[in-house]
Amino acid sequence: MRMYLISDNVDTLTGMRLAGVEGAVVHRREELQAELDRVCGDPEIAIVVLTEKFGREYPELIDSIRLSRSLPLLIEIPDRHGTLRGENFITSYVNEAVGVKL
Question: What is the pLDDT of residue 90?
Fold first, then answer.
């Protein structure tokens, strides 16, 4: 099983390639859809890493795969500009999911 990166910038791809992760850079919705279709059809790819920008701009594409397939696992990461999430996003996520304030 392999990881694969779909990024909106070359810097993230370069960094992941240094870690041994192959990937592609896409900029438009059509390119993202085509790349997602391709990697979802590859049984060797178990994890697809996406930059947060795609989750923010095209949530319907990402959510449709997450809801309809068990593999590949889609993970969103910040790009070189940093995260768009709030300062305590993990704590607030756990609070919301569990219902207990930490």
Answer: 56
